[in-house]
Amino acid sequence: MKIERVTDTVHMVTGTNVNWALVTDGDAVTVIDAGYPNDGADLLASLNAIGRTPHDVQAVLLTHAHLDHMGGIPTLLAKHPVPVLTGATEVAHAHRDYEEQITPPQMLRLCLHRPGITWVAQTLRAVLPHAKMSVPSAAPVPFGEALDLPGSPIPVSTPGHTSGHTAYVLDAAGVLLTGDALVTAHPLLPGRPRPQFLPSFFSENETQMELSLRALSELQADVIIPGHGPVAHGDMGRIVRNLSG
Predict the structure, then answer these.
(1) So what's the pLDDT on residue 214?
(2) Strand bridging mode 175-179 / 223-226
(3) pLDDT (0 to 100) of residue 237
(4) Kindly report the CA angle at 41 between 39 and 45, in degrees rounded to 5?
(5) In the prediction, which pLDDT does 245 show?
(6) DSSP one-letter string for 172-233
(7) Between helices 236-244 and 206-217, what is the axis angle to 10°?
(8) φ and ψ at 75, to 5 degrees?
(9) pLDDT tens for residues 58-106?
């Protein structure tokens, strides 16, 4: 686990090849995403590392219901039940009324190459035996309205990676949490860290992802906390233009 202080009130935590964020207001905390199922202990440890406890958490905001982003939620809820909020479409995904997730055959094909073998092994260690987990308490959150939570996060609809993917903007901090709508690095992506899409087999609709980026380009945020990879800095409009071009 690695913790990076992004602003006075925002920390990014990196678990098993995935990030989550802790947004504070005094002692109170908003958790945004939660890592893999077996990152749950690190989620609790990350709260302790910034001087907070599970009882300080006001809510968990979920960008999307892939196992690497919602996996640690049950560990937190076992210590302190709090609301789990995400976009309305993604609620059904978190409940596992439907599933949009990389399939075992797709994972098997990745094992033809060394980076794929490494990633699959790390992923299985981070998931098993919780591959069938869900978050039945997940509830919908309205888009475009600041939530009465630490950081006043504003949910932004960004479908494409999953059907109900949601990003969150922290206006006062100038921070955008993109989840997997936009990442900066991943074990299966070549080259240096930079704003980019995940490999296509991870996402449901890349065309929709590109359309969602247009909404992000209009936000007044110059710090990006992605679902995977390091923090990025820069004007969102320029970042989106460079990616699209």
Answers:
(1) 85
(2) parallel
(3) 84
(4) 110
(5) 58
(6) TTTEEEEETSSBS--TTS-SS--SBPPPGGG-S-HHHHHHHHHHHHTS---EEEESSS--EE
(7) 150
(8) -60, -45
(9) 999 999 999 999 999 999 999 999 999 999 999 999 999 999 999 999 9
Do residues 123 and 175 touch, judged by C-beta distance below 8 A?
Answer: no
Task: Supply the pLDDT for residue 129.
Answer: 97
- What is the model's pLDDT at position 204? 95
> Does the pTM of the predicted model rise above 0.90?
yes
Backbone angles phi, psi at 199, to 5 degrees: -50, 145
Structure token digits, residue 95: 């409940």
Using 50 as the pLDDT threshold, list the residues of the chain that sit under it. none
CA distance 19 to 223: 15
The edge-to-edge listing of strands for the beta sheet with 154-157 is 154-157, 166-170, 175-179, 223-226, 232-233
- CA 171 to centroid of chain Cα atoms: 18
CA distance 245 to 243: 5
Which residue segments constitute the domains of the chain, with CATH numbers given? 2-244 (3.60.15.10)
C-beta separation of 215 from 158 below 8 A: yes
State how far the alpha carbon of 218 is from the alpha carbons of 195, 226, 240, 244, in Å. Answer: 16, 17, 10, 14
Please state, in angstroms and rounded to a whole number, the distance separating the CA atoms of residues 50 and 73. Answer: 18
